[in-house]
C-alpha cells in the first residue's frame, strides 16, 4: 500500500517538473540565464515609467499641502506663549475674585446677614399681626369713657 502512494507522488512530481520545463522553453526570458529574449519587457517598463510619473505628480501635490499646512501649524513655543498668557489672565481673575470676596466679607459677615434677616422677619410678623388685629385694636381708641 505504501509503495503505491510513493509511486503516485513520484509520478505527480515528475509531471509537474516536466510542465515547468516546458513553460521555460516556451518563454526563454523567464529562465534567468541571460540568453533569453525580452518579450513584453518594453511595454512593462513603459507602464512602470508612466506609473512613476503619476506617483511623482501625486507626491508633488502632497508636498504642496504639507507646505501650506506648515505655514499655519502651531509650534511648541506658540503653545507655550498661549499657556503663559492664559496663566496670567487666570491669575488676574483669581486676584479680582479674592478682592471682591474680601470686600463683601468686610461689609457684612454671614452672621450679620442672618441677624439682620431674623430681625426683618420679626418686624414683618409684628406688622402683619398688627394689621390682622387692627379692628380689635381700633376699638380701644374709639371707645368713649
Keywords:
elongated; 145 residues; 83% helix; 5 helices; mainly alpha
Describe this structure in words.
It is a single chain. By secondary structure, this protein is mainly alpha-helical. It has a domain at 109-145. Helices cover 83% and strands 0% of the residues. It has five helices and no strands. The protein has helices spanning 2-26, 41-72, 76-107, 110-132, 134-142. The radius of gyration is 51 Å and the shape is elongated. The model has no long low-confidence stretch (mean pLDDT 81).
Order of SSEs: HHHHH
Backbone CA Rg = 51 Å
- Return the structural class: mainly alpha
Give the N-terminus to C-terminus distance in angstroms: 148 Å
Q: What proportion of the residues is helical, as a percent range?
A: over 70%
The shape is elongated
Strand content: under 5%
The total of helices stands at 5
Strand element count: 0
Quick gist of this model?
83% of the residues lie in helices and 0% in strands. By secondary structure, it is mostly helical.
Question: Could you outline the blueprint of secondary structure elements for this entry?
Answer:
Layout: H1 2-26, H2 41-72, H3 76-107, H4 110-132, H5 134-142
Amino acid at each position: 500500500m505504501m509503495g503505491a502512494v510513493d509511486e503516485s507522488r513520484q509520478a505527480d512530481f515528475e509531471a509537474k517538473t516536466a510542465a515547468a520545463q516546458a513553460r521555460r522553453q516556451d518563454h526563454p526570458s523567464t529562465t534567468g540565464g541571460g540568453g533569453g529574449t525580452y518579450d513584453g519587457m518594453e511595454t512593462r517598463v513603459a507602464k512602470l515609467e508612466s506609473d512613476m510619473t503619476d506617483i511623482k505628480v501625486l507626491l508633488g501635490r502632497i508636498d504642496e499641502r504639507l507646505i501650506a499646512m506648515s505655514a499655519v501649524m502651531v509650534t511648541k513655543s506658540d503653545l507655550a506663549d498661549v499657556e503663559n498668557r492664559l496663566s496670567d489672565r487666570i491669575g488676574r481673575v483669581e486676584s479680582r475674585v479674592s478682592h471682591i470676596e474680601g470686600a463683601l466679607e468686610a461689609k457684612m459677615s454671614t452672621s450679620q446677614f442672618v441677624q439682620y434677616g431674623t430681625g426683618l422677619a420679626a418686624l414683618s410678623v409684628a406688622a402683619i399681626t398688627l394689621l390682622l388685629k387692627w379692628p380689635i385694636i381700633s376699638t380701644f381708641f374709639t371707645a368713649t369713657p
